[in-house]
Design a protein that fits this description.
It contains 8 helices and 49 strands. The strands form 8 sheets. It has a 24-stranded parallel β-sheet, with no helix packed on it. Helix 7 crosses helix 8. The longest helix has 18 residues, at 737-754. It is globular and about 90 Å long.
């Protein structure tokens, strides 16, 4: 009865209970909402029970204790909370148990590891916690064990040592029982060193200990796993040299050791006998050198190779020429400073990443779907882009001239991501990009592009490509989510057509020559209205989007510093219109963008007041409104923005008392200087009863008090001996108001120029 909708059938269990001879019951994906209790179980001869893919959040499982003949139980993907149903402990014949993708949040019960008949145990992606039990070795029949993606902790050596010791005893006694073939403990918090006793699991085919807290060296006994086909130990803290014995496992087809602290040399000897190897990932081991002679012919045909952040260079690896089945290649941050050989561009790769090297020369036509060649020294002529390309990153290179010839031969219908930041590109906005109806990320920043921003960018709104009525799904391409055009020479007004981009989450038009007013409809961006979180990032990995990969990166200025965002980009939402010639006021509609994390409108000619409801923007972490002509008081609600960690309101015409509260008083006085009518902490100008700064107190000599203000804030917190030492330099600033204002304005402008904020 799999996939039959039983959501409105409340008595389904009572009906099934009348079938005394029932031996197999499969109710997977039947929209079941709960399981009622049973006073008496009539189908006690049931052998197979599948209740997976339902919604059994709150159910009664007491009657499970009467299913003593059950051999297979599948409760996966039901969002069940709490502990594993206690009734399972009486299932003395159970062979297969799947508890995956629920919300079990207890420790693993001791009785679970006394089920000696159990051969398959899956508890993937729950919230199990506590130590991995030492009596795991009691699972004497276990062949498949998967406890991945939980919060289990403890010393893995002690726990798994018992398990593999039992495997050894079965071998030594020539037992006919089952042996461990599959072990996945990845994605937990397990500690300790690699268990050398795992070498006794002679028929182990799959081993995943990745994403834990394991450390120490890999033992030589690892080479005894002569049936192993997949080994994943990535994202741990393993160190030392990689043992040569690893190369003895001729059955190994997938090896992932990325993001550890291995050092030394990964040589031909390590790989000489790995004749079955298909995928190798040794990336992000910063002290690991991959060394092979130019005439070496590997004994394997790889389909995937990731050596990013390893030491490969300076020459381009010549041994790759014979790897004709290679589809995914990453050699970024590898110290390569060579010219890429001509044979490389004729291959049929799916993904190449050679970014962040010092590769020189030019690039011929490009036809690979996903291409990452940023941060190199490639020069003209610009490469021709084919219609097969869906992701392209040529940022931080030396290309010049107009972009139009690069895309003249491509339809670009499925083009999804384009990064051309920091080249020397010029001319108007490239017209061929008008056909990129599936574009999600566009970064043309830090070039010399001119003219106006075209209105047709507002057409990048995605499209439906296919409908699956039988499962109620629609396959569609996403609309533009990231638009970064800062540091060019665009002029004219901001086209209101940008408001059509409902999925836009990052808009950066800073440091151009744009004029006019800020469109009020910017307040309608739906993805900026709802606060983002870790469960609702960009839908780049949503299977119902056509995405073709995982490029979600951009370089943005936030909190006054330039950051390069990658996987966390989907959690950001922000607008940067700084360093333009925009006028008018700040639209009140901005305050509806409750999910906005950064807003930079500095260095413009904005007038009027700060929107009264700005305190509604609870997600703001960075707000810069400096160097404008804003007036009026600072809204009281600004003091309630709890996450605000960067604020700059300097050099406006703001007046009155800075709202009291620990949030605003915690900022530097530099955040408020240049507003003569502003008073209150953190400034040292106290406010009078009228809400204006108090008049300065004249000195005892009766001199003109116009040259005196309190300088305590300037050296507050400095040691007294330092203050005395520099007094001779700063005394004139205390005596002359004009000098003092000119000096601090100079410092503030230099700060902006150094950070790339100059107009």
């Amino acid at each position: 009865m799999t996939t039959v909708n039983l959501s409105k059938t409340s008595n389904w269990l009572q009906v099934m209970n009348k079938l005394h001879s029932l031996s197999v019951l499969r109710l997977s994906n039947c929209e079941l909402l709960a399981i009622d209790s049973l006073r008496h179980v009539n189908f006690s001869n049931l052998l197979i029970l599948d209740l997976s893919w339902n919604h059994l959040i709150s159910s009664s499982f007491d009657w499970f204790a009467d299913l003593s003949s059950l051999t297979t139980l599948n409760l996966a993907d039901n969002t069940i909370h709490g502990q594993i149903p206690y009734g399972l402990r009486n299932m003395s014949s159970l062979i297969f148990l799947d508890l995956s993708y629920n919300k079990f949040a207890s420790s693993l019960p001791d009785w679970l590891f006394h089920m000696t008949t159990l051969e398959h145990l899956y508890a993937i992606s729950n919230m199990f916690q506590g130590k991995l039990p030492n009596n795991i070795g009691n699972l004497s029949s276990i062949t498949y064990l998967d406890l991945s993606d939980n919060a289990l902790e403890g010393d893995i050596l002690r726990s798994l040592g018992n398990l593999c010791a039992f495997q050894l005893s079965k071998i030594s006694h020539r037992s006919q029982g089952k042996s461990l073939e599959f072990l996945n403990l990845g994605g937990n918090k397990l500690s300790g060193s690699f268990p050398d006793t795992l070498g006794e699991c002679k028929i182990l085919e799959y081993l995943n200990l990745g994403e834990n807290r394991l450390s120490g060296h890999l033992p030589n006994e690892l080479g005894q796993l002569n049936s192993l086909s997949s080994l994943y130990i990535h994202r741990n803290s393993f160190s030392g040299k990689i043992p040569i014995s690893l190369g003895r496992i001729s059955t190994l087809s997938r090896l992932n050791i990325r993001e550890n602290f291995f050092k030394g040399i990964l040589s031909e000897k390590h790989l000489a006998n790995l004749t079955s190897l298909k995928e190798l990932d040794a990336s992000s081991n910063l002290q690991l050198t991959v060394q092979a002679s130019s005439n070496w012919t590997p004994p394997f045909q790889l389909t995937g190779l990731d050596l990013g952040s390893c030491r490969l260079g300076p020459q381009f690896p010549a041994w790759l020429q014979t790897r004709k089945n290679l589809y995914d290649l990453n050699m970024s941050y590898a110290g390569i400073s060579d010219v890429i050989p001509a044979w490389f561009w004729t291959r049929t790769y799916q993904t190449i990443d050679l970014s962040h090297n010092q590769i020189i020369g030019s690039i011929p036509s490009l036809h690979f779907p996903r291409i990452h060649l940023g941060s190199n020294n490639f020069t003209d002529p610009q490469p021709q882009i084919s219609s097969d390309v869906v992701e392209l990153d040529l940022s931080d290179n030396l290309f010049r001239g107009s972009l139009s010839p690069m895309f003249s031969m491509a339809s670009l219908i499925w083009f999804r991501s384009l990064h051309l930041r920091n080249n020397h590109l010029s001319g108007n906005f490239p017209l061929p990009l008008k056909n990129c109806s599936s574009l999600m990320v566009l970064d043309l920043s830090e070039n010399e592009l001119t003219g106006s921003i075209p209105e047709w960018i507002g057409n990048f709104i995605g499209k439906i490509t296919e409908t699956f009525l039988e499962v109620g799904r629609i396959l569609y391409t996403a609309s533009l989510m990231v638009l970064v055009l800062h540091s060019n020479k665009f002029n004219g007004s901001i086209p209101v057509e940008l408001c059509h981009l409902n999925s836009l989450q990052i808009l950066d038009l800073g440091n151009n020559n744009l004029s006019g007013t800020i469109p009020r409809c910017f307040g309608n961006y739906s993805r900026m209205i709802k606060p983002s979180n870790s469960t609702s990032p960009f839908p780049f990995h949503d299977p119902y989007y056509i995405t073709f990969g995982s490029t979600d990166e951009a370089t943005l200025v936030m909190k006054g510093v330039e950051y390069e965002y990658h996987k966390s980009l989907g959690l950001l939402a922000g607008i940067d219109l700084s360093s333009n010639n925009l006028s008018g006021g700040i639209p009140e509609e901005f305050t509806s963008l409750h999910g906005l994390i950064f807003l930079n409108l500095s260095h413009n000619h904005l007038q009027g007041k700060i929107p009264v409801k700005i305190g509604d923007m609870k997600s703001l972490e960075s707000l810069d409104l400096s160097m404008n002509r804003l007036s009026g008081v600072i809204p009281q609600g600004m003091a309630t923005i709890a996450f605000l960690s960067h604020l700059n309101l300097s050099y406006n015409n703001l007046s009155g008392q800075i709202p009291s509260g620990t949030q605003l008083q915690g900022f530097s006085p530099f955040s408020f200087i240049g507003n003569p009518e502003l008073c209150g902490a953190p400034l040292t100008d106290d406010c009078g009863e009228d809400g204006k700064p108090k008049a300065p107190i004249p000195d005892n000599d009766g001199e003109d008090d116009s040259g005196w203000i309190d300088m305590k804030w300037f050296y507050l917190g400095m040691p007294w001996d330092f203050a005395v030492g520099v007094w001779a330099i700063f005394a004139p600033l205390a005596l002359k108001r004009a000098w003092r204002h000119a000096y601090f304005q100079f410092l503030d402008e230099m700060k902006y120029k150094l950070l790339g904020w100059c107009p």
